[in-house]
Amino acid sequence: MNRRIVSFETESVEKIVIPNQVFLLFGMPGAGKGTLTKGLLDSVKNIKHISTGDIFRQHIKTGTELGKQVKSIIDSGSLVPDEVTLDVVATELLPQNHDLLAYALDGFPRTVNQAKLLLNYLDRYKFPFKNVLYLKIDEDTAISRLSDRLTCRSCSASYSTTFNPPENGACKCGGELYQRADDTPEGIYKRLNVYKYETAPVLQFLEKMELLKTIDCNGDNLEERKQQALQILNSSD
Asked: Which domains does the chain possess?
């Protein structure tokens, strides 16, 4: 059986500028939040990507006090305390730049309390909060994706051993690939349960604000997914 290689179109195009805003990428683990963000970063000049997971993993890698504090929590598939996570996000959301940049929040908020804390922060500093991109995916598809995912220790790029296998067993940047502790069968089960009982209620909370835009992420057409997201973000006036 031929392997399907999924990737965004790579032809060189001039990057666009989208309206300044804060937008969320929301979906269960394995929905493709990081993958979609990479596609947007390749196409949009003024996006600043804020991934709480990547930030925490960098702290763990460099052995900071924060990294030591959150390592066991993340490895177990649990959520980092709300106030700690908001502090990390706040250091990346710079009020002086909110009229220039489009901030993509990936992995936050994950609880209703985090959502309320974020909304208070955005309102206080007059950030334009315009869209929640809900990446909808079936649970079976999410489990399949997470089970064969490999992550680069250096640049955090993700590969699939089935659909996007790395060449020569290494990342394009030369970094070592590994399976994250929360991508093991036990870790996946724990993460999906945390999503169902703690994160999914955030969806209902955000839906009431009428900012939710749903993108079907069950298929492998990443370019189509990216174009849907760009149309939504570029129409934010």
From this structure: 21-136+185-234 (3.40.50.300)
For the question of residue 145 being annotated catalytic, the response is no
Query: For the segment 173-185, what is each residue's pLDDT rounded down to a tens digit?
Result: 999 999 888 888 8
In the numeric block, which tokens belong to residue 200? 């999914």
Distance, in Å, from the CA atom of 222 to the CA atom of 57, rounded to the nearest integer, reads 25
Whether cis (ω within 30° of 0) applies to the bond prior to 19 is no
Q: Say what the pLDDT of residue 110 is.
A: 87
pTM over 0.85: no
- Among 38, 130, 145, 149, the active-site one is 149
Active site residue 149: yes
Q: How many helices (H) and strands (E) does the chain have?
A: 9, 8
Distance CA 177, CA 169 (A): 7
From the candidates 130, 191, 225, 226, which is the catalytic residue? 191
User: What's the longest Cα–Cα distance across the chain?
Assistant: 55
User: Are 1 and 178 within 8 A, CB to CB?
Assistant: no
Q: How far apart are CA 165 and CA 70, in angstroms?
A: 30
Q: Between 208 and 98, name the one with better pLDDT.
A: 208
Q: What is the pLDDT of residues 32-58, one digit of tens each?
A: 888 899 899 999 999 999 999 889 988
